Each structure stands twice: as C-alpha cells, then as structure tokens.
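Work Package 3 (structural annotation) set out to generate three-dimensional models for the target panel prioritized at the project kickoff. During this period the team completed the workflow that converts sequence records into discrete structure tokens, so that structures can be stored uniformly alongside our sequence database. As a representative example, we reproduce one entry of 577 residues exactly as it appears in the project archive.
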Amino acid sequence: MKFTPSLCFLLLFAWLFFSSCQVKPTPPKPNVLLIITDDQGWGDLSFHGNKLIETPNIDSLASQSIVFDRFYVSPVCAPTRASLLTGTYHPATGTTWVTHRMEVMREEEVTIAEILQSNGYRTGLFGKWHQGKQFPHDPIGQGFEEFLGFTEGHLNNYFDSKLTHNFEEISFEGYLPDFLTDKTVDFMQGEAPFFAMLAFNTPHSPFQVPDIYFDKYKVKGLSDKDAAVYGMVENIDDNIGKLMSFLKQSGKLDNTIVIFMTDNGPNGVRFNGGMKGTKAHLDEGGVRVPFFMRIPGRDTLLIKPWAAHIDVLPTLMDILEIEIAKEIEVHGKSLLPLIKGNPLWEDRYFFTHHVNQEFDTIPGAIRNQKYLLTLQKNKKELYDLENDYSQTQNIIAENPQLVEMMEREYLAWFQNITKKGITPPLIQVGHPQVPNIELPAPDGKMEGGVMFKGKMGWANDWFVGFSSEEDRVSWNIETVVETDYEIYLQLSNTSPFELFLEMNEKKWVIEVPEVHIAQEISSPDRVLRGEVYENTWPLVPLGKKRFEKGPLKLTLGTKGGADASLEIKSVILKRVD
C-alpha cells in the first residue's frame, strides 16, 4: 500500500477519533477511616492548648485536616453514635440513653455502613458499638460485614479479655486499644474501597492503662484518674500514628478520608478550654468535641460555623458522590459547601436531649451560632456564646421574647423527633444465621425486691435480691422463626434451690441441686471503679425449649424463695439444629 499524504491524514484522524472514544478508567473510590474515642473531651489534646498532655500524631492529623472549631455531639455515648451513624437526631432512631435497652437503635434505621456497603465498600467496625447487643440491632445487622469489639457501653477489663467477632466470642491478649488498631490495619490491607470505623474504648472507665503511659503523667503531679486518662489518650495518639504510618507506607493515604472525633465531653473535671460542663451536661463542655477531617486534595481549613454529628453522613455521601435515597430521613446537612469555602451558609439550630434515668421532655438545649438555651427542671439559662463561650453570664432576664421563641422551637422539634415513640424494640431470636444469643441482665426487667448489683445497671451488671417468689426477672422477646434452643443460665448460688422458668403460658420448675460460685477476675484499675467487676460465671443448663414464632416473655424466679446470695448474670440461648 502506498502511503500518500491524504491517506496518512485519514489514518491519523481515525486514530485520534477512536482514541477519544475509548472509555477512560474510573478513578478508585476513596476509602474512609472513621476514628471515634470514648469520653475524650475537647481539651484532651495538645492541639487545643493542653500543656500537660502530648498528642503529636493527632495534632499532625489536625494540621492536615479540615478543622471544625465548634463541632457538637450528644452528652453521652450511645446517642452520639446513633446520630453519627444515621445523620438523624438520636431519639428518632429509638436510642435515648445508654442502658436498659434505651441504647438500642431500630433495625430499620439506615447507617453509613449500610449505604457504603450497597455501593461496593467493604465495611468493618472495630471496638465499641453500643446500639444493641442482639442481631439485627448489632453491627452485622446494621451494615458492617466484619465486627470485632463489644456491643455494650464499656468492657470490664482492657487487658487480656474477651470480645465478639461477628457472632463468636474470642479472647485477645495485650491492651485492647492496641489490639483494635492492629485489627483495623489488617482490615485496611484488604481490597479497596473500605469503610473502617475504629471506635476506641478509651479513655472511658475502667481506668486501665500500661505503666509506661500512667507513670509519665503521674510524675507530672496529676491525680491517679487524670494520669490514667491522659495516659490512655497518649496511647490512642500512638495508635493513630500507627494507622497513619500504615496508610502512608501502603500508598492508601492519598485516597483515604480520615476522620477523628470524640463522642461527648470529658468524663471528669479537667482542662477543657474554659468551657462549662462535662460529660452528661447540656453545656458547651459536655457536647463540644474535636472534629478533624482529612480529605485528599483538600487544603487545610478552620471552619467557624458550627457543625454536628448529624452532618457526618450527608457530608460523606456528598464527598463520595453517593446519592442518599429519598426515603431515608436525614436531619443533618452536608458540610461540603463550607469545606469548599462557600461563604453563603445559613445559621440553624442544633438540638440536644438528655435522659437522666427516666425519659422526659427535658433536660434539653437549643443553640445556634450565637445563643444557647438550656432547659432543665425548674431552671432555664440563656448564654451569648459569641461573647461568653464559658457561660459565665446568664442573660435570660434581658431576653424574654428570644427565650420564648427558642423554647417553642425546641418543643416543636421534640414533638417531631419522638413521633415514632421511644419504646425499645423487642429482643429478636430465631434468626438462622445467629447460633447463640445472650440476654444480659441490663436488657431485662425486675420485679419485687430484685435489684442490680451495681445499683444503676450499667453494662455487664447482674441481678441480686431473690428472696421470695415475687422476686423475678424477665426479658421481652420476639421469635422471628420458630426455633429450638438449649437454655443456659449464668448464675452464682451458695445453696441448692428450685428455679421456675416461664415462657408466656408455659411454666417449668427446675432443680438446681449444686452450688455454683462466680469468681471475680483481678482488674488492674488505677482508681476505684463505679461499675461492677468482671467475673467468670458458671453456666447452668435449664433444658431444651421450643420458641414459637411471635412475642414472648421469658421470666425467671425462685420457687418458695431462695438463698439471698443468688445472682443472675444472663440467659444464654444456644440454637439446636
């Protein structure tokens, strides 16, 4: 073939045409690493001016991040996590408090993990869950394909203890935050894209930390508690350094969004930037926390307008260009316009609700960029946050109309946010993929003289006070598929007794002829704990029973009274195939 100038031109044109028609490779989806700590306050960082603590890795992350100056969460942990995961104010999810199933989030709520999983992401949660213990209210039921951690509000021991891996109990060695970090790194080594949520258990009590961290802060003259807390935070900082080093060395850092935040104010009075209040308070010190978001390709920026946990889900989906289904209710707002530097940002109200053992309309708060109104029993306070962020001057007397308007807004919000009700969902049993189910004491109800060993019934507590037949405990259950279970009871008793077991209209009397003694496990606490201690509990078989489909009330008590030393930790159901 003779290549004339005309033919060469045509061939060149054809090559350029077909080259332009070739499909360009799709850029990889960004990974997401979400780090949240437990009971770490705004002031528990050297980045925020704390002269005693050393957090160089978190400070370095902040220096590379979008920093939100006023970022708000809920006063306690389970409500914060529900709002973070769903972009919804926590009462609307069913989560209202931290124990007695008031922490359980309804299974129909859609989480970040569920949205990302449906968009091709691997999803893993490592650490604390605190939204429900049993499937489908556990992490596996809410979008995490891998879960390694604990479902309760806290673990009883942070060294050489036990965790849940998906549906199985496993043991771990070493210090829990280190173990969780290593497992998060293992997860991130897999195929992209991934959503890894690392929910550290520290610095929540019990205050346990290796000597190398505790001793460093004790010699600075701190109390045992504060030395433990600061040591726990520095350990978190070391682990964040390990995470960032892995991302950099693996080449994943330039395609990974990294978020660092905490779940509420500090668990004690210590440096907090001059803010009023601590954990479980409505004031700034109870709900304003660090929030740093490192986004590849985005310059660092300090953002002054307030933002909150409800904004994380819509912001992530906006950055990842994932559309949120219209049927999913989201109360938060994408912060991407602020991140892009858009000055046209309208102020809005942020609402806070807190439970003090019993659910009520208040305590509550409403705030915007300038004002904070707190509502408590027989007490209202108004503060000008722009000029008095330490809340030293209550200006309620000078602003009656503003107070009336803000309170009206809060009450309308509260009515709307609780329209689904706040009754905790029933414990579900019968799911074929779940081999064993635990019904712990804090998930149950008490009658007669029964009480919790630790009085309040925090996570891991147990029942005591069985002295007559009127003293009984029960769990409200829904059996989704008729199933046979072997029933076991974790208990401790000092003399033989007869136990009765009721399941709706059926009742059995079961003899417990032997003594079973729970053994307390040594706990390396730095200060006296407020929770119960961990025990090894004998497991007593109660026989095989059929759980028929539908609602069920499982009740336990003693026939003719029992030794007052009887203690019941939990009911264990083991599926019979």
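The chain has eleven helices and 31 strands.
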